[in-house]
Amino acid sequence: MTSQSDDFESVVKVKREEAIAEFHDDHKGFVKKLQHALHVTPSLVPLIVLVLSIGVFGALLGEKFFSASSMTLVLQQVQLVGIVAAAQSLIILTAGIDLSVGAIMVMSSVVMGQFTFRYGIPVEVSVACGLIVGTALGAVNGWLVAKMKLPPFIVTLGTWQIILAANFLYSANETIRSQDIRDNAPLLQVFGTTFKIGADEAGQGGATLTVGVIFMLVLVAVLAYVLRQTAFGRHIYAVGDDPEAAKLSGVNVDRVLIAVYALTGLICAFAGWALIGRIGSVSPTSGQEANIQSITAVVIGGISLFGGRGSIMGALFGAMIVGVFTLGLRLAGADAQWTYLFIGALIIAAVAVDQWIRKVSA
Amino acid sequence: MKKLLAGTALALIAMTGAASAQSAEGMTTCLITKTDTNPFFVKMKEGAEAAAEELGMTLNSFAGTVDGDNETQVAAIETCIADGAKGILIAASDTSAIVDSVQKARDAGILVIALDTPLTPADAADATFATDNFAAGLLIGQWAAGTLGDDAANAKIAMLDLAVSQPTVDVLRDQGFLQGFGIELGDANVIGDEEDPRIVGNDVTSGNEEGGRTAMENLLAVDPEINVVYTINEPAAAGAYEALRAVGRENDVLIVSVDGGCPGVQNVAEGVIGATSQQYPLEMARLGVQAIAAFAADGTLPQPTEGKDFFDTGVKLITDAPVDGVESITSAEGTDLCWG
Questions:
Q1: CATH of the structural domain B2-131+281-303, one choice from 2.40.50.90, 3.40.50.2300, 3.40.50.300, 3.90.1200.10
Q2: Residue B263 is nearest to which of A175, A278, A330, comparing CB atoms?
Q3: pLDDT (tens digit, 9 = 90+) per residue, B135-164?
Q4: Does the keyword Transmembrane helix apply (chain A) (predicted)?
Q5: Which of A34, A140, B75, B219 lies 20 to 30 A from A195 at CA?
Q6: Chain B residues 201-220 with CB within 8 Å of chain A
Q7: pTM for this one?
Q8: ipTM value of the model?
Q9: Across the interface, which of A73, A202, A279 has its CB nearest the CB of B221?
């Protein structure tokens, strides 16, 4: 073994130094490093913006804004958009878009309410029916996209109108009052149940969380795990990045698409349940802007509208950024128009950053 | 082709004109509302249908798909002109954009009455039949001030308005409330320029529960001691109530509103809303159809209510805790008159 001729290892060592092909580290300089880091961790940008905006508003407004009660209030105010944005993220990761999310949400809440109050069906069954209706509506979207090969924008533009119209026709735009729900079917409002941490004796101040907020956080955590660690999750990214390549690698693209749209419908139905908890009543006119708001959150959250790239945490941060701006500007006494102006600017900035990061992909 | 069409339309109008001997019997009237889904407009349609049937007229109803849908209303007016209608009742979605189409209808000899929402300018229509929204606001303002008594001087007021675009109805109700409460107005055409420190802030609600709750939460974060809440309508009020209930303040805050829908009136009965100003969509439509019948019969034009530039279809304050000097009816009486 000690003889020179048998020294295979040294041969290998020499070979290694030949450097046939290697990855060059192009990430020199701070900007390049940053660009690379952002490319690897897409939810970093919205997180930085979120922390910065909390810091700026906190510095401007002091304790009024930078308190447990105000911070948790933001969470309460964004819970619906957050839940719907989580669903929207799944669709956008497949390079699709869903304009019908808000309509599915409202329709599901109306089914839950009307089944209970109009037909006297036990509330547990009504809730299950609402969740089934939401899932079915999502599955129809998915079927039209996957099997009929229609563009998602067109499909959901159509189903959005159809579902909203059906919602108004079915409910006759009748509101079921909060008091009636509280007395007869409190399960419908379960997402509004609040927990207070650190409130004073009068029940004021302190952090306030609702079941809806906790649901949103758990949902995002679960989806983040599914997207990163499971085959189904990786398939969603694969389909969004390049459906042809995914198909050739043995992914059943149609089945993934239908499953994603159906899952989105189910999540939206849960959002409808949370909507009842949030506003107390069942109101067919609520939540009509949820589609635009969820897309806004997703875009600000750094998820690429071209599919296949982005993290679902980003969508949550995106929703929270909008919430922080809305509350912060209102506490600062600014007119409501300013909120829209800033959110518009954020959207453009987010897409610009996305384009810049994409340049690193080579 | 265009000329031919216009000629045909004119001929049609001439024919229908000749056919209208004296009565409105068999005449066509159009009703164009903002949407088919809002109970307010559903009630309006009911009123118009009942009145048209009574007078032997045919009623054609149209509605936009959503509030703000101008194109569908323009198409509806064109259909009415082609149909040879004698009159059009319209609750305009876009009060400025619709004006040209309304003018075309008037040029064709059709009586156009704006229902609920005045056009911009108001004289673009032959007449306006509407709720006096300023008076509606005034009543709830006076009631809130009267209920608080001497404490009104230290009130902390939240103003939950409709939209950032400040549509007329939004401004009139908001400013009416403030005047009724005894607050000095800035420009009466603008929301939010008052300097009275009793106003904690203004926020917009989109007139629904979700917006009402969020706006209330925002203003409570500005000042948790708010004790008077003005709301643009009853769904916004219901949302504000939920926000107050979440912080345990629902029993020491006065909520006032405008509309008079059935769920809102029931909320007055149960103490959720202190007082609401009720408006009467059925009455608007009924009076509108009758005015068109009168015009068809002998060309009489509807006259505005004395001292106002529109025909006031009335507003009543509903509360179960009346205040001296402010006329009101009980929630039980309000329930008989409510819509939706």
A1: 3.40.50.2300
A2: A175
A3: 999 999 999 999 999 999 999 999 999 988
A4: yes
A5: B219
A6: 201-204, 206, 208-210, 212-214, 217-219
A7: 0.79
A8: 0.72
A9: A73
